[in-house]
Amino acid sequence: MPSTGADAPRFTTVDWADEASGLPRVQVRTVGFVVALLALAALFAYDYSVSPNSLVWSWDLTRMDWLSLLAGVVGVRYGVVPLVVDRDRTTRYVAALGRQPAAVLSFAYLFAFAVLGILGPETFGYATADFTRELQPPVYTSVNADPFVNYACIGDMVNERCHGTWKYPLGTTRVGEDVAKFVVYGMHIALKLALSAGILMVLVATAVGTAAGYFGGWIDDVLMWYVDIQQTIPAVVVYIIVAYTFLDDGLFTLALVFGLFDWGGIARLLRSETLKRRSSGYVRAARSAGASHLHVLRKHVVPNAADTIVTALTRQIPVLILIQVALSYLQLNTVNLRSLGEVLTRGLSTNPVPWFQRWWVMGSVVVFLVVTVVAFNLLGDAIGDVLDGQTEVR
Amino acid sequence: MSLVKYTARRGALAAVAALVAISLTFLVVATNRFYPVDTPLTQQYADYVLGVLRLEFGYSDSLRRPVSDVLVASVPRTLAYVVPAILFTYTLGILGGLAAAYGTNRRDTAARLFAYVMLGVPTMVVGSLLVYELMKHTWWASHPQWCTADGFVQKCWPPFTQQNVPFLGATEGGWGLRTATGWPNTEPWRTINHRYLLPAAVLSVGLATGLFRQARRAALEHRASSVSKMLAAKGASDTLDARHALRNAALPLLSVSFAELMSVFTIWAFVVEAIFHVPGITAFVQIAVRTRDLPLLVGTTVVLALLGVALSFLQDVLYGYLDPEVGES
């Protein structure tokens, strides 16, 4: 149930020097953002022209990595920096979220997911085949070793049952690949996809949604017509066409196509949100004080729609991760190493033993996906409750 | 605005959307030619659009028949499970949402968690496990994966193809009950029958969550309203109150949910056809991709996009019918 208790009025400090200065003041965050973008561009130019094979040592960046880095810079500028700068508001959010155990748990999980996604594959290594350690069960579980041929149990063998060890906490596949490493690599893929497609979606949807809602008239008509048309053509279909005729079936294509063609829902939400704000007191006050449309949009309309954007993203991102897994299951999307979809294919196959005799291969992937989807959605519910029009930026 | 005028406007929009979809595929065709074409581009475009309107998509080399023949056979099969799936999804999502909103707090949390978990379990897992179970009992279910066994060596192929050659029939050695890892068969799905309800049910499992969430929120909003209080004061039961909630929530449910469903719907349709071996449109998209058959790819994707346009148009008309503002003058 949404909270019904009335909140006490809050007084916020306004930096009048910042608001009232005639000349546009250059802020530290803007400088930092431009410097970061320039550094990224310089690195890209260096990588492209001087050393195409590797950037530093043997580290070679693909175009997906570049897109993720760019998205990361934009995400830090518009997601992290405002939270750090406006500490007052951040503490309020944290306190409000802290009252909901489900939100805290979800946030903790998603934080771990992000850290593991960035650092995990390099720290723990990549899954490799090793026939001396095939089909080890996960830790604290055991498996009947009878049906397996040439089987070597790494843990304890008790009554013909092999017990799992901490060495392979999620067990191994039939060729001895560590399932935990698959899952960590899956997190890496999911994070890159979520970050780059998410940022692209937010950028386009914010521009279109707020412009349509704020200006109204023919701009609204044209933009919403476009959104209507775009939403009738499924992004998956566009992806398949683009992947097999123009680009390749990699993660980059997927992020690009979904980032540029799957934002209609967010734009629509933002439009109705902007419609509500357009005639509110603070927008009219800012306008009559001489603020430009751009200023009003940047300072009043978009910041107040932050909850809508974040909640919409918590709905969209898990679906995106599921779509990537489904596409790689159908072998319509390939990543450098094994993606979770391929692991699912193997986990579900009956070779050499039916799936339920090595349930952990499929089980780990399903549990990872379920926990990720549930965490995103619960966090979205909590954020929606906390930010739902309670703390307006005026 | 009268209903007729509203319908005409949405119809015009659907026509524009269809033209956009066709034009985009023309772009694909025009940029992927192997041979030079002398006629000017505008002429090519006009010919192409007219060809699509006459359902002429050229000849599929990999299947050795005209693409339109393939489409005529496959579109009904896809619709045979998509239409029931939409009905299932709406029923499941709305009833679940109402049950959660009108239940105790604990039941509400449980229902919410269950819905999110069901969203997270990939459809291929639900579908595959169901097919494994069916394989024990029925003659027509065959192994969900597309694998061939050569002695001890098993090799798995992308759905509906083997060595980049379309594969739709049964191999030697049979399939289903007799051999556990036999090559799958599309035979039981050639004609439309009651079995199509099965993929429909599997498809709706992963889709109902979005509707569930919106139905729940709408019902909660309704319960907080004074109308609901008045109904309760007059002695109305929860069921009656829920009916009021549903009627008020019908418009937002229709307008937001369908567009949100679209991309998820398509990807799970691909998965469901692959797992149940239904030779529908998405099956032929996959064949076209593997065999690099451009006419087939263009034909199938145009039809997929046009199906999306048609379904959105139907949704718009339903919206207009339910919206009290449309129809007032």
UniProtKB/TrEMBL annotation, chain A:
Q: Which family does it belong to?
A: Belongs to the binding-protein-dependent transport system permease family.
InterPro entries associated with the record: BP-dependent_transpt_permease, MetI-like, MetI-like_sf
PANTHER family recorded for this chain?
OLIGOPEPTIDE TRANSPORT SYSTEM PERMEASE PROTEIN AMID, OLIGOPEPTIDE TRANSPORT SYSTEM PERMEASE PROTEIN APPC
Q: What is this protein called?
A: ABC transporter permease subunit
Which N-terminal residues, if any, form the signal peptide?
A: none
Pfam entry (one): BPD_transp_1
Give TM segment ranges: 28-46, 66-85, 97-119, 193-216, 359-379
Domain (ABC transmembrane type-1): residue spans on this chain: 187-380
GO BP of this protein = peptide transport; protein transport; transmembrane transport
Origin species, per record, is: Halobacterium bonnevillei
Q: What is its main location?
A: membrane
Q: How does it sit in the membrane?
A: Multi-pass membrane protein
Lineage: superkingdom: Archaea
Q: Give the keywords, sorted.
A: Cell membrane, Membrane, Peptide transport, Protein transport, Transmembrane, Transmembrane helix, Transport
Q: Where in the cell is it found?
A: Cell membrane
Q: Which GO terms describe its cellular component?
A: plasma membrane
From TrEMBL, chain B:
* Topology of the protein relative to the lipid bilayer: Multi-pass membrane protein
Cell membrane among the record's keywords? Answer: yes
Record keywords:
Cell membrane, Membrane, Transmembrane, Transmembrane helix, Transport
Chief location category = membrane
**Record's Gene Ontology CC terms?**
plasma membrane
**UniProt superkingdom:** Archaea
Ranges where the ABC transmembrane type-1 domain occurs? 75-315
GO terms classed as biological process: transmembrane transport
Is Kinase a UniProt keyword of this protein?
Answer: no
| Residues annotated as transmembrane | 12-35, 79-101, 113-132, 296-314
- Subcellular location as annotated: Cell membrane
Q: Name one Pfam family in it.
A: BPD_transp_1
The UniProt family comment states: Belongs to the binding-protein-dependent transport system permease family.
Q: State the protein's name.
A: ABC transporter permease subunit
Species source reads: Halobacterium bonnevillei
